[in-house]
Specification:
By secondary structure, this protein is of the alpha/beta class. It has 5 helices and 7 strands, in the order H-E-E-E-H-E-H-E-H-E-E-H. It has a single domain (3-149), classed as Glutaredoxin (3-Layer(aba) Sandwich). Strand 4, helix 3 and strand 5 form a beta-alpha-beta unit. The longest helix is centred in the middle third of the chain and has 16 residues, at 79-94.
Length: 152
């Protein structure tokens, strides 16, 4: 075991809700390729794609994450949001293990939209260390997501 592993530097965890049993789990994002499993039901967390985040969990996920968190504020009926979905999927896959990519349905969490000043969708907010560090409103190509992440 290396010194950095014994000091915990190789662990980059985030708190996520299992999409199957709804139990909150502390997940090692750095081991995403190993498909970490829910401690309750044993089903895998698929971190190579955007994960659903509820309005109730957003603050906790952002605050407790040891990796940057990119959140897509979207709605199912939104055309530009639908255009962004495959781009966000590719971005999440490219950044597996180094960043958490999530999606939050603004129709299901209107209070969160107000709190974060979401005036149009899609809106992407990048959080690092529990704080907002960058924001992009409107659909963007993958290069735009890469530029957003470059502020880190």
């Amino acid at each position: 075991m290396t010194d950095s592993a014994t000091q915990g530097h190789d662990t980059r965890s985030a708190t996520l809700r299992c999409p199957f049993c709804l139990k909150l789990n502390r997940v090692d994002v750095a081991r995403a390729d190993d498909r970490p499993k829910c401690g309750e039901c044993g089903r895998p967390f698929l971190l190579d794609r955007p994960v659903k985040i509820s309005g109730e969990d957003l603050e906790r996920i952002v605050a407790e994450s040891e990796v940057p968190v990119l959140v897509d504020f979207y709605a199912d009926w939104c055309g530009p949001c639908k255009m962004m979905a495959p781009i966000l999927d590719e971005f999440a896959s490219d950044h597996t293990g180094e960043m958490l990519v999530g999606k939050l349905d603004t129709d299901a969490a209107p209070a969160v939209s107000v709190k974060y000043g979401i005036r149009g969708i899609p809106t992407l907010i990048l959080f690092n260390g529990g704080k907002e560090v960058a924001r992009q409103s409107g659909a963007v190509p993958k290069k735009g997501l890469d530029e957003l992440a470059a502020v880190l």
